[in-house]
Amino acid sequence: MPWCATCDRFLSPPTVRADGTCPSCGRAVEPGRAHAAPPVAGDAVTEEEALPPIPWHLKLLAAAVAIYLGYRAFQGIEWLVGRF
Fold first, then answer.
1. Which sequence spans correspond to the domains of the chain?
2. DSSP three-state, residue 55
3. What is the block-wise mean pLDDT of the chain (84 residues), using blocks of 10 residues?
4. How far is CA 67 from CA 8, 60, 72, 83, in A?
5. How many C-alpha atoms does 75 have within 13 Å on its Cβ side?
């Protein structure tokens, strides 16, 4: 959230002027840390951020779900074969 230290209040992002100043007092507003600033035209992007590795417990959950669904598919096929 943008913060105006002079007015001692938070501002919603749409109320901040395009040049980054407070609509009440006209002083510069601290941008906050909610979102990274969009890239400015002419700035070269040096490196893309690498994605973090997938946690082990998410891999374990995916394996357990795959085994369970495989077992249920086997049961369904066995049930269909038994009906005919």
1. 1-35, 53-84
2. coil
3. 83 84 85 62 61 94 98 97 90
4. 57, 11, 9, 25
5. 6
